[in-house]
Specification:
Largest sheet: 7 strands, mixed
Radius of gyration: 35 Å
Strand content: 5-15%
Structural class: alpha+beta
Number of strands: 23
Helix content: 40-55%
Number of helices: 24
Length: 842
């Protein structure tokens, strides 16, 4: 078996080494004994190349199969390596942690509040440095056209925490984040060239951000746009935090660098101590005594929820490579059977088994190496395609074909070569090739053992294809369910754009509301516009704020966490603009302003959860943990709309009038007939007629937002589906090859059967039964493997069970139909064998 072959390989190598180290063998004094082995192997390699060029069809088929399998695996591993395995681009990155507010082991979704961050800065004992970042869009004004850019305001310790500095100029200095200190900003290299020009140093230049003058103090290296795992940014203004008046809101991304002697467990204990110390002071407005500051490795928080999908994708492509390797092994069996007479002659002339094994293995490695090189070229092309279609995956800038990827490709190549090279040697190794010389001259390697070996390989291909195809069907079924989700609004003819009013020009709620009253009236007067409104959030996954609340009818117990819900700030007309049905109650009006009693509307899911058996209108609640504030009254129930993703089946939401909680940055939504671009031009004119320094860019239709929400599941499903299709095709080719070979080598037996009375249908059944036995056996084995492995897909599925028996039945039927189709052509060819011609040739 395989063990005998490995022993033979080792003995062959030892024999060659001994032969070149014996005193009586002449050799060049400058060539060591091992060098002689190398020369022998090189000679075998040259023979292998000549042999492979004599069979171009076989060589091309094997190379193409290997290149596709190795290329796909290399491309996917490059993504996995860059996103998941490569260290973060910071010194001692393993000491960087992200600090969350957590109130349960499975909940770490809270950022920090100003209270939390300042308490950590002042009281912690385990970090060398701690920094805080936020993310928002800002308006750049001054010379040139007003520009809307991405900003990540950060505290003074950002660059010291990360262990990196700007490529030009300097980073922040201690104390620059104190309120009243002259504002400074670090900018990206791309923004510097776009705003100030190529080759011009902007260090020391003024930059007006939201109408507040800043001084540029540094420029990051080219390509650096993400710091600390935050969203991509063009500018990093200094973040100056004012003294808080309550525990919330929670919006700061906190990053800490652990001291060298501090473990993550010790850091967690120290942050828990800080949490306990600040709770009593703010407990009146924040009643959750279980909420604890908790550290997590920064790398883990950056890669987030893509870990499982990427490893599943890597597993899928490895299955494809294994199927490809089995297919090439089957081709190698055919090639070996055609060369049995050659091997028998060489054995009868004195060639040892070790020598023959070495020749065949070297030939396989030469073929695998050529396939690996071709696969590497395909990987470069495939990687660009993968990255171009990647739906906002983290760390894509770290993805490349580096030395680790090249090493993995080399291992895959050599491993594949050994696997399919040893396959022809497993059968009949103990037999005497020379004794079978006469038999080889007659029938070649058409014995039962070789058919059994090829049958095992085809069975393995079907077994590997089942979990691959099952995973693809499950993901596609989940995607189909997501596409059919009722989003609760009418997306046609609705588009949105983000607009921000600078605090310097609009310092209070009155000035912001006055601006929008005029602008919204002007937009609604446009002939194409049906309705327009403002909102802080957009469906299906543009959620920025979740707010805590407590019901007066049944408050939470002291010391426990209050429920939270997506909390939208909207203007009157928002429901009509979006097409959200108003089920009960009334819409907001201009009278629902600051001095009036606070009111909210709630979604139907919210009403069902908290008041399932009673009327929700008129119910009251405290919002934001403020029990000294006037209670808020529910005045309406509206339709369910998802704000936490299309897979959020619990579409609770609360809507509050913008006049009672005024935001400077909002989404302007417009329902209008005609092209969004042309309507947007007229909307921009209305806004800039009121204030020419406010840029209006980035119009997005609601249809596009829905499509973007499906980008990741569509991406995973498409890739796994392509790999599954490739695996099924390879399995079909494998079973077709086995039966075609069987028919060609058994034509004498088939002719004899037909001469003795067997008809064409009997012969067809014989061939099809042989092929379907392989397909059925492989499918059954694959179903067991799929049942054990598809559970890993559970987190990626929506309204689909990973063990859905209907999926497994469908997969089995598809593979059996594919197997039957692949059997049909060889079976038909067998039924047309001419008995007279076959027996006459005998």
């Amino acid at each position: 078996g395989v063990l005998n072959i490995l022993v033979a390989l080792a003995s062959a190598l030892a024999e060659q080494v001994r032969s070149y180290q014996t005193p009586d063998r002449r050799r060049s004094p400058d060539v060591p004994g091992v060098g002689g082995v190398a020369r022998e192997v090189m000679r075998d390699a040259r023979l292998a190349v000549r042999s492979l060029t004599k069979t171009p069809v076989f060589t091309a088929a094997a190379l193409l199969t290997l290149a596709l399998g190795i290329g796909a695996t290399t491309a996917i591993f490059s993504v996995v390596n860059g996103v998941l395995l490569r260290p973060l681009p910071y010194p001692n990155a393993d000491r960087l942690v992200r600090i969350y507010q957590q109130n349960a082991p499975d909940n770490r979704c809270w950022a920090l509040s100003v209270v939390d961050f300042q308490a950590v800065m002042e009281d912690q004992r385990v970090f060398e440095h701690v920094a805080g970042l936020t993310h928002r869009e800002v308006t750049i004004t001054g010379s040139g056209t007003p520009e809307r850019v991405r900003a990540a305001p950060a505290t003074a310790d950002l660059f010291r925490t990360l262990g990196m500095e700007p490529a030009e100029g300097r980073g922040f200095r201690p104390g620059e984040d104190e309120p009243g200190t002259p504002p400074v900003v670090v900018i990206s290299h791309a923004f510097s060239e776009r705003r100030f020009g190529t080759g011009i140093s902007p260090v020391g230049a003024p930059l007006t951000i939201d109408q507040v003058p800043h001084t540029v103090i540094g420029v990051m290296a080219p390509g650096v746009t993400r710091l600390g795992g935050a969203s991509s940014a063009d500018v990093w203004p200094i973040l100056q935090l004012t003294p808080p008046t309550r525990r919330g809101p929670f919006f700061i991304r906190a990053i800490g660098r652990l001291r060298e002697t501090v473990s993550p467990e010790l850091a967690g204990a120290d942050l828990a101590r800080v949490s306990r110390s600040i709770f009593p002071q703010w407990s009146e407005g924040f009643r959750d005594s279980q909420a604890t500051l908790t550290p997590y490795p920064l790398r883990d928080t950056i890669v987030g929820d893509v870990v499982t999908p990427l490893y599943l994708l890597l597993g899928a492509v490895v299955l494809v490579l294994m199927i490809a390797t089995a297919n090439v092994a089957s081709l190698m069996v055919v090639r070996a059977s055609a060369r049995e007479r050659e091997m028998a002659v060489r054995a009868s002339l004195g060639a040892s088994r070790a020598r023959l094994v070495r020749q065949l293995v070297v030939e396989s490695l030469v073929l695998a190496s050529a396939g690996g090189l071709a696969g590497l070229l395909l990987a470069f092309v495939g990687l660009q395609t993968l990255l171009a279609g990647a739906p906002n995956l983290p760390r894509l800038d770290a993805v490349s074909v580096d030395l680790k990827v090249l090493g993995a490709t080399a291992v895959l190549t050599l491993g594949s070569g050994l696997l399919f090279g040893l396959a022809p040697l497993v059968h009949g190794w103990s037999e005497d090739l020379a004794a079978r010389l006469n038999a080889a001259g007659r029938s070649g390697m058409a014995g039962r053992g070789w058919h059994r070996l090829r049958g095992i390989l085809v069975t393995a291909e079907f077994a590997l294809a089942v979990p691959l195809l099952a995973g693809a069907v499950l993901l596609l079924s989940s995607l189909s369910r997501l596409q059919d989700v009722d989003v609760g609004f009418a997306p046609d003819d609705v588009f949105s754009t983000n607009v921000s009013l600078p605090a310097a020009a609009y310092p209070d709620a009155a000035s912001i509301q006055a601006f929008w009253r005029t602008v919204l009236a002007g937009i609604r007067d446009l002939p194409e516009v049906e309705q327009a409104a403002l909102t802080s959030e957009l469906p299906p996954d543009n959620l920025m704020v979740s707010n805590n609340f407590d019901l007066l009818d049944h408050p939470v117990a002291p010391g426990t966490s209050e429920p939270t819900a997506p909390w939208l700030i909207v203007t009157p007309g928002f429901y009509e603009t979006m097409g959200i049905p108003l089920l009960r109650g009334r819409d907001f009006t201009p009278a629902d302003s600051g001095p009036a009693p606070p009111v909210v509307a709630v979604s139907r899911a919210w009403a069902r959860r908290y008041f399932p058996d009673t009327e929700v209108l008129g119910r009251r609640l405290y919002s934001g943990g403020c029990r000294t504030c006037q209670p808020t009254t529910v005045i309406a129930v509206v339709g369910d709309v998802p704000y936490r993703g299309l897979d959020d089946e619990d579409a609770v939401a609360v809507y509050q009038p913008q006049a009672q909680w005024t935001w400077s940055t909002v989404q302007l939504v417009v329902r209008a007939a005609g092209s969004p671009g042309s309507v947007m031009d007229r909307v921009r004119d209305v806004i800039q007629s009121q204030d020419p320094d406010i840029p209006v860019t980035g119009v997005v239709t609601m249809g596009q937002r829905l499509s973007d929400a499906l980008a990741r599941p569509r991406y995973w499903s498409k890739l796994v589906g392509v790999f599954a299709a490739f695996g099924v095709v390879l399995a079909a080719i494998g079973i077709y090859g086995v039966l075609a070979y069987f028919v060609s080598r058994q034509s004498r037996d088939i002719g004899l059967r037909m001469a003795l009375g067997a008809n064409a249908s009997t012969v067809r059944r014989l061939v099809i039964a042989r092929g379907m036995a392989y397909a059925a056996t492989g499918t059954v084995i694959g179903l067991v493997a799929a049942r054990l492995s598809t559970g890993a897909l559970t987190a990626q599925l929506y309204q689909v069970r990973a063990t859905d028996p209907r999926v497994f039945v469908m997969v089995a039927l598809v593979l059996l139909v594919v197997g039957l189709a692949a059997c049909a052509i060889p079976a038909r060819r067998a039924s047309r064998v001419d008995p007279a011609r076959v027996l006459g040739a005998e």
